[in-house]
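Quick one - inputs below.
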Amino acid sequence: MSTVSETISRGRSARRVRIDGWRWGGRAFLVFMLLYTALPMIWMLLTSIKSGFAAMQFPPQWWPDQPTLASYQKLLDPQNSVGQDFLRFFWNSLIVSTATTILSVIVAVPAAYAFSRFTFPGRNFLFFAVLLRNMFPAVIFLVPLFILMRAIGLVNTHGSLVLTYLTFGLPLAIWLLKGFYDNIPVQLEQAARIDGATRFQAFVLIVMPLSTPGVIATAIYSFIGAWNEYIYAYTFLSKNEQLTLPVGIQRFFSENTTDFPGLMAASFMMSVPVVVLFLLLQRYFVRALTEGAVKH
Amino acid sequence: MAHVVLKDLVKTYGSFKAVNDVSLTVNDGEFVALVGPSGCGKTTTLNLVAGLISVTSGDIVIGDRVVNDLDPKDRDIAMVFQNYALYPQKSVYMNLAFPLQMRKLPKDQIDRKVREAARVLDMTQLLERKPRELSGGQQQRVALGRALVRDPAVFLMDEPLSNLDAKLRVQMRSEIKRFHQDLKATIIYVTHDQLEAVTMADRMAVMNGGYLQQYDSPAQVFAHPANMFVASFVGSPAMSLIPLEASTANGGAVLTSAEGWSLALSQRNARKVQKSTTRKVVLGARHSTIKLHKSAVPGAIPAKAYTVEPTGDVTFVQAFLSGAIVNISVSPNVAVAPDEQIWLEFDQERMHLFDSETEMALEAS
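Output:
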């Protein structure tokens, strides 16, 4: 009898130790991931408040001797030519990303709803066709799309970028949203239609409010994708006054010197809208990703 | 309130016939249950009446209108769903108000009706809550309230109790029945639970494989099942169905088993058996019509007890006869042990005879 209970208790404690091992391993991994993602950001921030000379010192100054906001002042000064450029690039990026976001939501919402709720000829084919684009690396489409844009006269316009970003962002946006609509019980719409709503009213009054988190997640996704995109912006736009931020920031590299504090300050400011957007809307984003995990 | 008529209703999906020539009339103020196993077409039939899916052929009449081509919103119906389908983003008040808002009623009238419905269903204190903050029973009541608030011609209910726990289900069952009695409402109620149908409905429509099997009052369906499916579906435990062969012995009709025993039939039952298309007949007997003897009795058939299930009020004994399971109920003070030799006596007046070929009930005249 005693041997049995001993075996059981030994078995239990052994199991407990193993779980703890996993937990500590998990924590260590999380700490590593945190450092891995946060350190470059911190280094970027530190470099941006150094002088040009301090940034190049070796061994590096971990904490700048004379912190300065000069780089930020220069970038945000509309009198200064660097500032003029930066603000224009920033504005261009904002326009392109916002247009991409709005259009992708306008297209993805009805498309995803249709894929989720209706059966129509070619539904499955179309659904996988929207993913086809994502099976290939983006660069493959660079030249064909450039030729296409030239043919329709969109080279050197922001429209060319918006169109291109839509072809990248839409498939995933539609997939994400379709999953969302799949999780909204169809009975809600049926109830609304019996309660006196038309099909469209049922969608607008009942389904749309419930899918807000999904729409927001989709919007964030589209915005970030467009905001960060480099290679197409670099190829399609050549006029200085049209460049977007990722391409514009390149100008801080030059043959002889690179203004590292300026580059880092610009990079930091470029990440601000994304971070702010994310902080404001993260609860919707998390809800979008975990939707369907609980019983309705 | 209004009556509902289904005329030769058919719904097909590709080559699959979900609903086959279903015709039935629901009278004004009647409570009709559509009952059958999953996939029998009962929910499809209800959705056809609701207008959520379109009919392939046949007619649906609500009141005096053929509603085949009307939108759900124009059919003057209300529906209670199995998962309640409460609008999760709206408060209970707004859930109840929604059907009235859609009909563009003035605000003060909406308020009056919502509060009235809340009072009737005893949930005035819940009006500001969101559906997720309610218990299952309360959600169910809100769903009922949302149907009630509009005063529709017909109430459609799709398994409204199946998400509740057993105790609450019994309670809500009597509440819905009370609701029907008080409102004199026309109700079409879908359920897979024959007990709900039997206890609540004025008439029950038993469906299987998309076909209407029998449409009658629960008492009639119970006493005179039209075929073997209805016989085995309605009643718990299920009616025992024993495959036998008809023959004559000593000038009278008997049913003989492959196991060697035979059962003499009364005059009336003998006439029934004559109607069968082949000699193969199925004997149907409910648990309460079979008498269990612990010693040989003339006319009783020997069997071996297989399982014994005491439930408190009665004890159910299962035995095998001719390869079929036979349920017998006995008083709890009759001690039967598994594998014990028992003798079963069938009540000639209350036994059912079915044609083994057509599965239809055999009638005497």
